[in-house]
Amino acid sequence: MKRKPFKVQAVATLLGISVDAVRRDSDDAGLQIERQGGDGPKTRLFSVENIFDLAAYRSKKYGIVAKRQLIFTVYAPKGGVGKTTKASNLAVTLALMGVRVLVIDLDFQANLTISYGYDPELTHEEALESGLPLSTCVNYHFGHLLPQWQGNGAGATLDQVIKKPFGENGPHLIPSEVTLDRLEALFTVEAIMSKKPELAIARWLANSRSGQNKDIDLSNYDVIMFDAPPAKNQTTRGALLASDFVIAPVSMEKYSTKSVSYLAGVLAEMDAEHGKYPELVILGNFYDMTRVRVAAQVLALTKQYPDAWLNKQVSSSEEFRKVLSDDEGMPLALARPSSNAAHELRDVTKALVAKMGIL
Q1: 35 vs 2, 138, 169, 259, 339, CA distance in Å?
Q2: Which residue has the higher pLDDT, 194 or 28?
Q3: What are the AAA domain coordinates in residue numbering (predicted)?
Q4: Structure pTM?
Q5: Of 144, 151, 246, 266, which is least packed with CB atoms within 10 Å of its CB?
Q6: Where are the alpha helices (DSSP H) in 275-339?
Q7: Residue 152's pLDDT band (boundaries 50, 70, 90)?
Q8: Please, what are the domains in the chain?
């Protein structure tokens, strides 16, 4: 996919460094940066891959390393709260901080996969007819990597499944498409046979991160992030049980105490049944403290869940809608780095990094 290039100032904003540091470190890293044509100044034009390569170089140069490997799920019991938008932006912002990120799209509607520039509905034939690269298509999903799917002779290798929408050093993606819905049927069969399918994802991750799974090695990722569908099915439950944290975006425009209470109840069930559950983090979205209703909701949330409320929020912004119509396959944090929304997303990510102790 051809994406617009970035000028030096935009790169500096994305990485939170000076323009001089961008120039110096990109030269030191030996990055191949295009120059603007014509008779004017030969302005550097960074590709999105260049930016993540520079972030990785700086991470290595300055010794920025993850203190711990984490798994977390972005989940909300109801749709329309900005869950997938936050997940896609969190992943790229973490990668810009030098964190090695794997995002797993667990929703067969594949909105996160689409936000990164892929078309789950596109066949190879349609791609060729339209002049699109075959890499735009989605041939595999998370299910193909699990023993439940491979036992039916339809598995795939990690190299076949994984997508790298922003290059080697950007967030990596295990995409989704409509047939992922079959995974729930396979888990249901296991539930009938008393095989505890809700633990399958945790077992798979443990084996894949420890080296016990010779075909799938996930040990090089600092963060593995699930974007889970709203339904409390076996797949979502499995992702939650495998996670250290669950990030729950809450719409401050349409907030209902029922959704957070419901999620708290789900976590309590997990604790009672399995003796473990992910730590809850509540992220305020569509936030406007000038509205009396929002202020009252914040007060109620912080009183009931004082340790879960994140101290940074994301306001309502038309910028999110505009990015969706750009058709460049980039979330807002990348596409509009100077916007107020992007600034808030960076602040939210920093708050999460601090709360979860990643760096």
Answers
A1: 17, 33, 22, 50, 25
A2: 28
A3: 72-270
A4: 0.93
A5: 151
A6: 292-304, 318-324, 332-335
A7: low
A8: 1-64 (1.10.1660.10), 66-356 (3.40.50.300)
